[in-house]
Design brief:
Layout: H1 2-20, E1 28-32, E2 35-39, E3 45-51, E4 54-57, E5 60-67, E6 73-77, E7 83-87, E8 108-112, E9 118-122, E10 129-133, E11 136-138, E12 150-153, E13 157-161, E14 168-170, E15 184-187, E16 194-196, E17 203-205, E18 212-214, E19 221-225, E20 230-233, E21 238-242, E22 246-248, E23 255-257, E24 264-266, E25 273-275, E26 282-284, E27 291-293, E28 301-303, E29 308-310, E30 314-318, E31 322-324, E32 331-333, E33 340-342, E34 349-351, E35 358-360, E36 367-369, E37 376-378, E38 385-387, E39 394-396, E40 403-405, E41 409-412
Parallel strand pairs: 2-6, 3-7, 6-8, 7-9, 8-12, 9-13, 10-14, 13-15, 14-16, 15-17, 16-18, 17-21, 18-22, 19-23, 22-24, 23-25, 24-26, 25-27, 26-30, 27-31, 28-32, 31-33, 32-34, 33-35, 34-36, 35-37, 36-38, 37-39, 38-40, 39-41
Antiparallel strand pairs: 1-2, 3-4, 4-5, 10-11, 19-20, 20-21, 28-29, 29-30
Length: 414
């Protein structure tokens, strides 16, 4: 009698447990012909990966089993907040059952997810080269002939993640991948990664290693600020930057600001302004008429001819025509070309050297030298000393009692 009662109680408890559990659609995977079909319900996650040659979904086999040698297409459909992960950690999905007419043979994904869904691509241990564009995702952009490996229906959130290699992850699209995309997250992972940007807003996370954000495919960005962790585009959109050390600017006129790390900052074409911040930075103006700036708490010594700047670190300078000093006492030396040199605050020494230069003081008693060439010297606030040097020079004083030497044109005030 007790045994029967105990059995009855267990049965009632099991029924109650089943009824109390909310219904959830399970992930299913079937294989027919050369097509793998995967279906997800709301809240489900399906991780599609290789296990040897077999194609698995969250570690389970399809029914019947499918492999990279027997399948050509993987079709994925999800509803609600479902998540699809294409996992390349065990290798690319190649070669596929049928050889392709051009390019390398591989399996194509067709992913259908709503706006509430998420698509993640997780890279492998070697170098990943992945391009995201309006037409889809190229999982192997290093192959000779570009193609789209992941076609996307709907508008899910998209994240592409590298792993241990020096990865190249791009949102710039391409001739095959389509136009540049927005609202995507790129994560470099370990290694020295290159993250290629285009339109905003997007999110870029470099991870470990020395990582680079590349805006060369963008017409113009307004401000790339590693210290602030943002990029402000000229259209007002904002990218989020995390653990990025290096920047390549756009072809337009950019302003690039580094952080306390050792940065490599390149302006690209255009008239750029670059401020390395603290750290030992490698700064390259590249094309255009570029300015190196120093918004630091320490005075700096800048020598354009030698390509060096010290004070807020030991920086290497390449391709700059102009200098804007700090709010402290600076020494700024030009080169043989035409320079615009500005001292700002502090008791600065500014020397144009060769070329037809514009040499400006700021607040403080500055010493301004034109050097050779036909120069323009402009005093700021404070008792400045202006020495035009050789050439036909113009010296402009301020309301303060400035002194003038070797100024061919009569010094003016104000």
């Amino acid at each position: 009698m007790r045994t029967a009662r105990r059995a009855c109680l267990v049965a009632v408890a099991l029924v109650a447990s089943v009824l109390a559990t909310p219904a959830a659609a399970a992930v299913t995977c079937t294989f027919a012909g050369t097509t793998v079909t995967i279906t997800l319900g709301d809240g489900d996650t399906a991780t599609i990966a290789r296990s040897g040659d077999e194609i698995t979904v969250s570690g389970m086999s399809c029914t019947p089993a499918a492999s990279v040698n027997t399948a050509d297409t993987i079709m994925v459909t999800g509803t609600g907040s479902s998540t699809v992960v294409i996992d390349l950690s065990a290798g690319q999905f190649i070669p596929g059952a049928t050889a392709e007419a051009s390019g390398e043979s591989e399996i194509e994904f067709q992913v259908d997810l709503p706006a509430s869904g998420t698509l993640r691509v997780a890279g492998g241990s070697n170098q990943d080269r992945i391009v995201v564009g309006g037409a889809g995702i190229n999982l192997n952009a290093g192959e000779a002939t570009a193609d789209v490996d992941v076609s996307i229906t709907g508008s899910p959130s998209i994240a592409v993640e590298g792993a241990e290699g020096d990865d190249v992850l791009s949102l710039a699209g391409g001739a095959v991948e389509g136009s540049a995309v927005q609202g995507v997250t790129l994560r470099g992972g370990a290694g020295d990664d290159m993250l290629r940007a285009a339109l905003g807003p997007n999110t870029f996370e470099g991870g470990d290693g020395s990582d680079t954000i590349d805006y060369s495919a963008t017409a113009q960005v307004g401000l790339v600020n590693l210290s602030g962790g943002t990029t402000l585009h000229v259209d007002g959109s904002v990218d989020t930057l995390r653990t990025i050390e290096n920047v390549i600017g756009s072809p337009g006129d950019d302003r690039i600001v580094g952080d306390a790390a050792d940065n490599l900052l390149s302006g690209g074409a255009g008239d750029d302004a670059i401020d390395g911040g603290a750290g030992d930075d490698d700064l390259d103006g590249d094309g255009g008429e570029d300015t190196v700036e120093f918004r630091t708490a320490q005075g700096v010594e800048v020598d354009l001819a030698a390509g060096t700047a010290t004070g807020a670190g030991e920086d290497t300078l390449t391709g700059f025509e102009n200098v804007t000093g700090s709010d402290q006492a600076d020494t700024i030396l030009g080169d043989g070309g035409p320079n615009l040199l500005r001292g700002l605050f502090g008791r600065d020494t500014v020397d144009g050297r060769g070329g037809d230069d514009v040499v400006r003081g700021g607040k403080g008693g500055d010493r301004l030298f034109g050097g050779s060439g036909d120069d323009l010297l402009q005093a700021g606030h404070g008792r400045d000393q202006l020495d035009g040097g050789r050439g036909e020079d113009v010296c402009r004083g301020s309301r303060d009692p400035d002194s003038f030497v070797r100024c061919e044109n009569y010094p003016t005030r104000g």
